[in-house]
Amino acid sequence: MIQKVKGTMDILPSETPLWRYIENIMREEAEKYGYGEIRTPTFENTELFVRGVGDTTDVVQKEMYTFVDRDEDRSISLRPEGTASVARAIIENGKCSDPMPLKFYYIISCFRHEKPQAGRSREFFQFGTEMFGSYSPAADATAIALANSVIRRVGLKNVKLHINSIGCKECRPKYRGALVSYFNSRADKLCDTCKSRLDKNPLRLLDCKNPDCAEGAKGAPKTVDHLCESCEKNFKLLCSALDAMNIEYVIDPSIVRGLDYYTGAVFEFIAEGIGAQSTVCGGGRYDGLVSSIGGPELPGIGFGMGITRLILAMREAGLDNIEAAKPRLYIAAMGEAALVKGLAITERLRREGFYAECDVVGRSLKAQMKYANKIGAGYTLIIGDSEIESGKAQLRNMENGEQTEVELDSFSL
Ligand code: ATP
Ligand code: MG
């Protein structure tokens, strides 16, 4: 028996209605905010992620699914996230000189070789959005408002918005110095990963999940205390915009995001009660990304929302009960002629737009009726030789038991 690859999942028809319900909300909300859907390839040249996501990140160093393409001798990677591909696509398709802003959304699967656990898989599903071409905190506020509206519309209440600003290329180097000297003074208390990250990517030490590191991070210098004038002004404006839009948040200095391209405002929506993988959505500003992969200076702001984690949070809150569609009609047939008639009627009704079913496995009449009940058919119709002869049958409303005589060749629902 060949099994699925570790860290992947099968999503069965009993669960897809919930997925589709969520995805429809994502699409509808994104379009209300003026984002258009973009579809980019599942795999890209590895170089795109090395430059776009950053070669000091875990994602690029340890987690990418990378292989050499058969005939071209090129290194290819399955996308570990969506932003770099969208940035590449707008450059490649000449969109950087279009009227700004540019707004895109996507619902995609991403691939990361991580340790599978609840809320963490190797192929995972993400709703992502990107807005390019604005330095204004109004853009940050719009992106956050969109993520917020999806989370509220699926009914989640125990999800909190955490925001922070990690500064720009003006203020980050100074802050970085303060951070490195703080952690150097307590280097003996750091986990091995943090020790090795201290020089390369010290910001990441702030969101290490190791309890000793997390304790140490609490006393660390805060990015928000080291912002340059313009970053500080932008962050304040973002906070007032969120206040004005009635979007609750907490300022959380531990939010730094994992990918190298982030600058300025960063945020996460964190769910209570779903365990360690509690960030259902993470995002922020990435003003350096487009230029780092060969495009013009074009600022950006976006987020990725993990659909599996959203479902975990919805499950925890009892919001996951979305049922599959039920047939409007089930036709039970006795005998071959009736079976053919049943097929003809269901086909006619389907062409009229109804969800109709008839027996295709040759069950007894009793078993067919039991099955109709089980699948929750709204109406049933029994056809045998006498019904075919008269051209009429009894249409039974399964909810109240009422029966109506109908003409087999012309009735509708
Ligand atoms: P985490 O801190 O949980 O590792 P991340 O910072 O690596 O997340 P992003 O790259 O920002 O995550 O991805 C955006 C969102 O996608 C996350 O907030 C999360 O909801 C989801 N996500 C990321 N990695 C996984 C995964 N391996 N399995 C399931 N969902 C994931
Ligand atoms: Mg991660």
What does this structure look like?
- With 413 residues, the chain is of the alpha+beta class.
- The chain folds into 2 domains: 16-171 and 227-316, BirA Bifunctional Protein, domain 2 (2-Layer Sandwich); 329-407, 3-Layer(aba) Sandwich (Rossmann fold).
- It is built from 14 helices and 16 strands.
- The protein has helices at 16-32, 46-52, 58-63, 83-92, 137-153, 172-184, 192-200, 211-218, 229-244, 289-292, 307-316, 336-351, 365-374, 385-390; strands at 36-37, 43-45, 66-68, 75-78, 102-111, 123-132, 159-165, 250-251, 263-271, 279-285, 300-306, 329-333, 356-358, 379-383, 392-397, 403-407.
- The strands form 3 sheets. It has an 8-stranded mixed sheet. It has a 5-stranded mixed sheet with strand order 13-12-14-15-16, with helices on both faces. Strands 2-4-3 form a 3-stranded antiparallel sheet.
- Helix 5 (137-153) runs parallel beside helix 9 (229-244).
- The longest helix has 17 residues, at 16-32.
- It is elongated.
- The protein starts with 15 loop residues before the first helix and ends in a 6-residue tail after the last strand.
- The relative contact order is 0.12.
- The model has no long low-confidence stretch (mean pLDDT 94).
- The structure holds adenosine-5'-triphosphate (ATP) and magnesium ion (MG).
- The site of adenosine-5'-triphosphate has 18 residues, from strand 6, strand 10, strand 11 and helix 11.
